[in-house]
Design goal:
Elements: H1 6-9, H2 13-17, E1 29-33, E2 38-41, E3 44-47, E4 51-53, E5 57-59, H3 80-95, E6 100-104, H4 112-127, E7 136-140, H5 156-167, E8 169-172, E9 177-181, E10 184-187, E11 192-194, E12 197-201, E13 204-206, H6 208-211, E14 234-236, H7 259-277, E15 290-296, E16 299-306, E17 314-320, H8 321-339
Parallel strand pairs: 4-14, 6-7, 6-12, 7-8
Antiparallel strand pairs: 1-2, 2-3, 5-13, 9-10, 10-11, 15-16, 16-17
The structure holds flavin-adenine dinucleotide.
Residues 28-29, 54-56, 77-78, 110, 112-113, 207, 209, 238-240, 257-260, 262, 292 line the site of flavin-adenine dinucleotide.
Length: 346
């Protein structure tokens, strides 16, 4: 929406790591040789005793003809470069209003940010008194609104259906996309949706350079300690790690691995490696859970799921103005913490 500049949210990684004796190599990994304990890059090979894979998603836009932004007609916010292009597309929409379609494709496994975008767009358009010129449709592979790839959180379905009804955001759930042409989305079920601006979470896969260690979609299997089942000195955390859904959905979706979860996994992997090096017993496994602040434009919602997949001990969604301030406060705290390299083991 233009509320943050690039320089507000990027980190100078070498400057943060080098004072701690951590070398930073800015190269793409093209392969891993577990037998030789080596990582291969275009710039050379690197030997390791332990390897932690945290390569995030490969955005498999080519799985849906016409899906952008690189070679298609839609936008996406999942890299900084793509987010900047989305900002430009948003500005063009403000000049020439028309229908917006927003949401998640089949095999996407990150849903929250597009709900946030739908709410933010609605709010920005209302502030400009333009909302009546921009019909918004929320199109998703989730079986119902608020499923989020985790079977919902508390009353998230009813909550999001009610909020979208109040805001006049149309819903198209449990949909797979066959093809996107300039200005039109063609659905697997036969429907067609025209658009002036379309933004989608694309299908996720594992990154090619490490996919040989993973499942058919390239995600790395791990045990309770985030360790590869066949290679005891290889760990995988975050989106790169394989996580099976509790129940398969009619249109395939993936389980999200949020930033909150990724930090927890990284801390657990670090604690396990430290224990291994020091010949200490492995730390106790911690169950994964979700705590999220969902931006809703003027306000926000706190979402909790503990554990991540049902059945759960705790699971709810709660709308509150304080959640908006908490989200902004957390952003400032997190970036400050990362810029100073402060970390705490679990
Ligand atoms: C718009 C948006 C909003 C979000 N909001 C939230 C939120 O509010 N709360 C929350 O908890 N989570 C949120 N998330 C999710 C969160 O960003 C991810 O869960 C988290 O970044 C995953 O961390 P990761 O380390 O697994 O992957 P990434 O953060 O994607 O990092 C992977 C890194 O690996 C690098 N890489 C890729 N391939 C290679 C290779 N071959 N060799 C070397 N390096 C490689 C990439 O360049 C990247 O730097 C959001 C995500 C998006 C896109």
């Amino acid at each position: 929406m233009g509320s943050r500049r690039q320089e507000d949210i990027i980190l100078d990684v070498p400057r943060i790591l080098e004072p701690r004796g951590i070398a930073f190599v800015h190269q793409a990994v093209t392969g891993v040789r577990p037998g030789e304990q080596k990582v291969v890059t275009a710039g050379g090979e690197y030997a390791y005793d332990y390897l932690v894979i945290a390569t995030g998603p490969y955005l498999a836009c080519e799985e849906i003809p016409g899906l952008g932004p690189k070679m298609g007609y839609t936008h996406c916010t999942f890299t900084l470069d793509y987010a900047l292009k989305s900002r430009d597309a948003w500005r063009r929409l403000l000049d020439e209003p028309g229908p917006v379609v927003i949401g998640s494709t089949q095999m996407a496994s990150c849903f929250g940010p597009y709900y946030e975008l739908a709410f933010e767009m609605d709010w920005e358009l209302r502030k400009r008194k333009m909302r009546h010129k921009v019909p918004i449709t929320y199109l998703t592979s989730e079986p119902y609104l608020g499923h989020m790839g985790v079977g919902g959180l508390g009353r998230s379905r009813r909550f999001l259906e009610d909020e979208f009804a109040d805001l006049d955001i149309r819903i198209a759930a449990s949909q797979a996309i066959d093809e996107i042409t300039p200005g039109e989305i063609r659905l697997a079920g036969g429907g067609r949706l025209p658009f002036k601006l379309a933004m989608f979470a694309p299908p996720f896969k594992g990154v090619k350079g490490v996919a040989a260690l993973g499942n058919p979609r390239g995600f790395i299997p791990v045990d309770d300690h985030y360790r590869h089942p066949d290679h005891a000195n290889i760990y995988a955390v975050g989106v790169a790690m394989a996580l099976a859904p509790a129940d398969p959905t009619p249109v395939p979706t993936g389980v999200p691995k949020t930033g909150f979860m990724t930090v927890r996994m990284a801390k657990a992997a670090a604690a396990n490696i430290a224990a291994d090096v020091g010949n200490l017993p492995a730390p106790r496994r911690q169950e994964l859970s979700v705590v999220c602040f969902m931006d809703m434009g003027r306000t926000a919602a706190l979402m909790v799921a503990d554990p991540l997949l049902p059945p759960r001990q705790k699971s709810y969604i709660k709308k509150a103005r304080w959640a908006k301030w908490a989200k902004i406060g957390f952003e400032k705290y997190f970036l400050w913490k990362m810029r100073h390299g402060y970390a705490r083991l679990p």
